[in-house]
Amino acid sequence: MLAAAIPPVVAALTDTASSAAFPENVLGGEPMTSRHFVIHLHGHLTYHLGQINYLHRMLME
Questions:
Q1: Rounded to an integer, what distance in angstroms lies between the CA atom of residue 35 and that of residue 19?
Q2: Were both Cys, which of 7, 14, 32, 42 would link to 36 (CB 3.0–4.6 Å)?
């Protein structure tokens, strides 16, 4: 399960690795650190989970 796989990976990130520049410029703006990209992914996932929850509530009425 994804929920069980993520915490060990994040816990294993060192300060040096998380402060390093993310290898790709995926958002088209200024380069970001790996830490910033992980935070971005968390927010993005949360956004989509909210969309799923909203649609679920609409369909269950």
A1: 6
A2: 32
The total number of structural domains that make up the chain: 1
Which amino acid is located at 39 in the chain?
A: I
Give average pLDDT by consecutive 10-residue segment, the chain, 61 residues: 85 92 90 92 94 96 83
Q: Give the residue numbers spanning the domain of 51.
A: 37-61
**Residue 3 within any structural domain of the chain:** no
Residue whose token pair is 């703006």: 29
Q: For position 2, what pLDDT does the model report?
A: 78
Q: Give the global pTM.
A: 0.75
In a domain, 1, yes or no: no
